[in-house]
Amino acid sequence: MDIINLILLIMLAGFACLAVFFKDLLRAALSLAFMSAVLAVVLYRMDSPYAAVFELSVVAGLITVLFVSTIALTKTEEAVKESRWPMYLFPLFLVLFGIIDLLVMKGLFSNIPAGYGNAEKSFGATLWGIRSMDLIGQIAVIFGGVFGVLALFREKPLTAQDKIDAEKAKDGGHKLW
Amino acid sequence: MLLLFIIVPLAVAALMPLVSRLWKGLPDILGVATMAALLTLSLYQIRLISSGHRILWDAAAIGLPLKAGLMLDGFSLLLLITISLISLFACIYSINYMEHYGAKGSYYALFLLMVAGMNGLVLTVDLFNMYVFLEVAAVASYALVAFGQKHDEVEAAFKYLMLSVLATTGILLAMSFIYLMTGTMNFKELSMAVGTGMSVKLIGLCLALFLMGFGLKAAMVPFHAWLPDAHPSAPAPISAMLSGVLIKVSGIYALTRVVYDIFGLPASVSQAMIWLGVASMVIGALIALGQNDFKRMLAYSSISQIGYIVVGLGLGTPLGIMGALFHLFNHATFKSLLFLDAGATEYATGTRDLSKLGGVGHKLPITSLTTTIGTFSIAGIPPFNGFWSKLLIIVALVEANHVGVAAIAIATSILTLWYFLLMQRKAFFGKLAAGLEKVKEVPFYMALATFCLAALCLLVGLFYPWVTAKLIQPGMTALTNSIGANGFSLFGQ
Question: Which of A18, B90, B119, B168 holds its CA 20 to 30 A away from the CA of B13?
Fold first, then answer.
């Protein structure tokens, strides 16, 4: 295997692992962005420039902006104690996956005939001429993400008790501290 | 015409956050009107499809500068009608139920996106498009599960998201292998390419990944862990949509399309589907028996009922397919009804814990009546709709010499009646539980939605010959034609 590809794939897996294990959400989001950037380079090297451009612009760019904006909307309320089991199990699964990958995938891939889908087509021809319906789906996915953020980070409506508390606080009859 | 099923809900969803600022009641009206229009449009297609035809739609034919194709046959029409029908009643129910959640604009926008995703999935003729629309429906459903913003709702949505990611990774991997082997994603071209010198091992791996991925989406045992958390946590109309429609579209429909249309139901997959179905039937019912949470019990019951559908489809005989498709439609109606009833009970009493309920039947006459109808339907009591579909599946099993499986199906049906009667007794009969003296029937639109669905359970049962002839038989014909057309044999079977 080409040494550069090997380095890129190790970086790819490394940034993916960091994205999972960083406790700071911002760092996790940035690790994911770096992973996407490395993936874009891998795609470019595999003669898929359009996929690389999309990966870089949409995932490393747009999605990271969406993540960072969402993280900016969150606030710290209370510390949540996390289980440490994933920390111990993850390396085991990673090694197990690597072994299966080495033993099985190489044999399977040797059964695949090479050379499909390499016909040179312009970006516009590919997008509008072949994958038009995907565009509609992509638009819908983006809508889904935006509406999801709007819905989940909305102000909660005041309950009857909240309104009573607010009234009391206004009258000075309710001491918060 | 077919593109309208995707574009209309998508366009209305995009407008929803804007129109919700104009007038508070506008999202309700737009949501219900959109679903009513889509239902009318889908019902209109029956006369075209019931004669065995299928509709192919090409964007270029109407002058659009796109290369996009959609297809409607009996199977996709059945799902299209089911989606529109259940969505309409869920929207009507939401008018009152979602009042206390707020942000109705965002709610209906996500709801319609989910509908657009499901419609796209059932109409597409392209495997990758299917994945894209699967994700559209899934992304909207994650947000809808967590819509209440409470801790357990967000946690359930996260668990659902994580397991769905696992499913879609498997599906995407299988699609990549198939594309690498065939160079196409079109169903028709794939069905012709499969079996022509392709690696049997790799096809076996793809089928296993599809079975795992779509099985997880359908919540078949052993891929069911996400459903009992996700479905009860969501707002009731969303629980109804998830259990009634989404698991069938993104799980059962997608799996059936791939396995039947592309691979022609290989014998090994048929056997796997039958045994996974049996496991789902039995395990789902046994766990449901021990539940005290109304909605959680319904969620486990969904796993059990999905088992019946998978067994019927796994059989692959015309009668088995017919029973499975009929049960798919029936389960959508009575499970949605039961989830809406569970939501109504929680709305009126403030709890869905069956041990804290009791004797509310006379306080909630409509909810109690419709829950009883739902119970009889799901348990397969004649003349309700569930009876006929279960009967067809059991007869198909006996015909195919799966007498043992038929006996398990009958026993599971009795078990279903048992746990539903237990639920009825705990919730609606007996002495009125303390603190529930002031309970009163739910608001008009909630009662209307449950009443209509209950009436549908009875009417479909009474007029089942017409329903099977117009709705189910064209679906069965489409699927049996797929097996006949392909007949791919895996591992020499």
Answer: B168
Q: Determine the Cα–Cα distance for residues B212 and B259; give it in Å rounded to an integer.
A: 12
Q: Is residue B221 within 8 Å of B284, Cβ to Cβ?
A: yes
B319-378 residues touching A, CB cutoff 8 A = none
Q: Which residues form the domain of B142? A: 4-486
Q: Does B60 touch chain A (CB under 8 A)?
A: no
The single-letter code of the amino acid at A114 is A
Exposure of A100 by Cβ count < 10 A (0-12 exposed, 13-18 middle, 19+ buried)?
exposed
Nearest to B345 by CA among B377, B376, B368: B368
Cα–Cα distance between B424 and B431 in angstroms, integer? 13
List pLDDT tens digits, range B93-110: 999 998 888 788 899 999
pLDDT in tens, A111-121: 666 555 545 56
Domain spans of chain A?
A: 1-74+85-108, 137-177
- Specify the pTM: 0.86
Nearest-Cα distance to chain B for A150, in Å, is 7
Nearest by CB to residue A147, choosing from B110, B120, B132, is B110
Q: Is residue B493 part of a domain?
A: no
Residue B81 resides in a domain: yes
Q: B492 lies in a domain?
A: no
Question: How many structural domains are present in chain B?
Answer: 1
Sign of CA dihedral B452, B111, B40, B389: negative
Q: Quick one: pLDDT band at residue A167, thresholds 50, 70, 90?
A: low
CA-based nearest residue in chain A for residue B111: A144
